[in-house]
Amino acid sequence: MCEVQAVKDLDAVKLVGHLLQRTYGQQMADIWNVGLNLALRISDLLSIKFSDINSDRLTLREGKTGKLATIKLNEKARVVIDRIRAENPDHVYLFQSYRNRWSLNKGPKPLSRRYVSRAISSIGEEVGLALGTHSMRKTRGYHLYKNTRDIARVMKMLRHGSEAVTLRYIGITQDDVDRDFVELEL
Q1: What φ, ψ does residue 96 adopt, rounded to 5°?
Q2: What is the rounded CA–CA span in Å between residue 130 and residue 179?
Q3: Which residues have CB under 8 Å from 13's CB, separation 6+?
Q4: For residue 96, is it within any domain?
Q5: Is Disulfide bond among the key words of this record (predicted)?
Q6: Residue 4 lies in a domain
Q7: Per-residue pLDDT of the chain (186 residues; tens, 9 = 90+)
Q8: Which of 21, 52, 103, 133 pairs as cysteine with 29 (C-beta 3.0–4.6 A)?
Q9: CATH code assigned at 177
């Protein structure tokens, strides 16, 4: 498995969303847009049930860490979630698979991680970026850090335990640090 990147250019973030919508449909674009705004691991993002969402807040237990994540939904995430709920009032999952509705005696399931991964990777190849399912989470962390320069805030949002892990995760490299020293003269 190759290392995936944060999307550092905001125009590229929009382009990826547009290409996902054009190539794979609205549901995949919604995954990208909600994923960018919630900064969850893909397994947690795909496991979101409508019952986990109460007004403007999402509450779920993270699969990897077992930590309770309580996330206040921003306007963009709320609009997308409300539209999905209105279009699919009988769905259990926010990103529910349509395959199972024709299967007899099968309950609803979310989209598979593999399908989402292939779609995002494919668009990454098209735009020349190493993209994967973690790119949404990394992109959110990267842009929060660039806007605030507050690594503690980014760590808290991503629920990381170490600054070094967070910096490496969001793609802050030694070149970025060197550039900061050169560009900021006091």
Answers
A1: -80, 140
A2: 23
A3: 7, 36, 139
A4: yes
A5: no
A6: no
A7: 578 999 999 999 999 999 999 999 999 999 999 999 999 999 999 999 999 999 899 999 999 988 899 999 999 999 999 999 999 999 999 999 987 555 556 789 999 999 999 999 999 999 999 999 999 999 999 999 999 989 999 999 998 989 888 988 998 876 777 777 788 777
A8: 21
A9: 1.10.443.10
What tokens appear for 128 in the block?
């020349």
Query: Structure tokens of 46?
Result: 């795909």
Assigned domain for 5 exists: no
In this structure, is residue 3 part of a structural domain? no
Per 3-state DSSP, the chain is made up of helix, strand and coil in percentages (nearest 5) of: 60, 10, 35
- The residues that are catalytic are 41, 64, 134, 137, 160, 169
Q: Which domain holds residue 79?
A: 10-183
